[in-house]
C-alpha cells in the first residue's frame, strides 16, 4: 500500500509528458496535423483523468486515516500534495488550452485595422480563412452607413466582439476557403455591416471549386483567369425583356447580342461591350438628374450600386426613372432605357466603328499601369506601362474592374495585386506574376518585364530554392551597414 503513492505519481508523469510536450511544441510555432493533436490531447486527457481520480481517492483516504491518528507530518505532506494538484490544474490548464490554438490564428487575432481577409495553408493540409479586424458591437438602433450623433454618446460602440466571433473557416468540410470581399455568413444571427461586393464573384469561385475533381496547379491558374459573371448575365436578360417590349427596330442589334450572352467578358466579344455601355448609360440617365454629376461619380466608385443594379433595373416603379428636369411629365423605366440604348449605339459607333461586328470589348476595355508622372504628356510614354487589351471585367474572378464614367470607355482602374499558385506538395514549382515588374525604377529592365505576361494570363516560376536563385540571378544586391 505504501508504494501506491509512487505508482500514482509515476503514472501521472507518464500520461502528462506527451500532453505537455505537444503543448510546448505548438506554442513554439510548430504545426501538427489536427488528427495528431486531437489524438494526443484526447488520449492523455482521458488517462490523466483516470489517474487523478484514483490518486484523489487515495489522498482523501490517507488524509482521513492520518488525521484520525493525528500524524501531523503525513497530514501536512498530503495537504501540500493536494494543494499542489489544485495549483497545477489552475496554472497548467490555460497553457494546455493555449497550446490548442493555431499560432496563425493567434497572430491574426491581434490585428485591429484595416479589415483584411487572411488566407492560410500549410504542408500538413490545414487551411483557414479569417476576417481580421476588431469588430465593434453597435447599439441596435445604429445604421452604420448613416451619419451618427457625436454629441450624446448614444451612437457610440458598446465594445468589441471577441475574435472567436469574427467570420472565419478552419478546415471546412468543403475542402476549400475563399473570399471575394463578399458579405460573410451571419455569426450568431448577426450580419456584420460593411462595404461588401456582390456575391456573384464569390459564387463563381464556389461553383468552380465544388467540381468533383482534383485540381492541378495549372487548373487553378486557369481558374484565376475566369471571366464569367452570372450577375451580369441575369441583368442582361432583364434588359433584353425590357428592350423587346419597347418595339423599336433600332434596338434589334442590342437585343440580338444580349439574348444569348452568358456573362463572359472576353476581349474579342461584342456582348460585353454592348452590356457595359448600356448599363453605364442607364445609371447616368436615371440618377444624374437627381443628385448631379459629382455626387453620382462618387457613388459609382463604391460597392453600393454594384449590389443594386439588378434590383434597380427590375423595379419598374423605381422613382429614379423620372427625369426631374421635365416638370410637365413623369418618365417611365422604358423611356429612360430606350434613350440609354440609343445613346449606347451612338457611343459604340464612336469608340469601336460603324459596323456592329467591330464593337469588340477589347477596344474599350484596356489596361494601363499609370505612373504619377505619367499624368503629364509626353511623360506618359516614358513612365506609364500599357495600354494592353485585356479579358476580364467588373465582378468576375479576373476582376479587372473600372468605373462607369459615361465616356464609352472602361479603362481598368484596379485588379489583382498579383496572381499566384503554390502547391504545398511541390513548393519549389509554384507560379506567379505581378502586374508590371519587381522594380519601381523606370530605368530597370524589371520595371515592366511582367506586364505583358499579366495582361495575357501568363505566369513565371516562383523560385524558392536558394541554390537555384543563386545560379539564375545575374545580379547581386549587397546591403552594407554604415559606419554609424
Keywords:
mainly alpha, globular, three-stranded antiparallel β-sheet, 10 strands, 484 residues, single chain
Fold and architecture overview:
The longest helix has 35 residues, at 34-68. With 484 residues, the chain is mostly helical. The protein is 44% helix and 8% strand. Among the domains are: 4-101; 108-196, no CATH class; 230-349, no CATH class. The chain is globular and about 105 Å long. The relative contact order is 0.07. The model is unreliable at 93-101 (pLDDT under 50). The strands form four sheets. The protein has a three-stranded antiparallel β-sheet, covered by helices on one side. The protein has a three-stranded antiparallel β-sheet with strand order 8-9-10, covered by helices on one side. Strands 3-4 form a two-stranded antiparallel ribbon.
Task: Indicate the topology.
Elements: H1 4-27, H2 34-68, H3 72-100, H4 103-109, E1 116-121, E2 127-132, E3 136-137, E4 159-160, E5 168-170, H5 199-209, H6 217-223, H7 230-246, H8 252-259, H9 271-299, H10 309-314, H11 333-351, H12 361-364, E6 366-369, H13 380-383, E7 385-389, E8 419-421, E9 430-433, H14 451-456, E10 460-462, H15 466-472
Antiparallel strand pairs: 1-2, 2-5, 3-4, 6-7, 8-9, 9-10
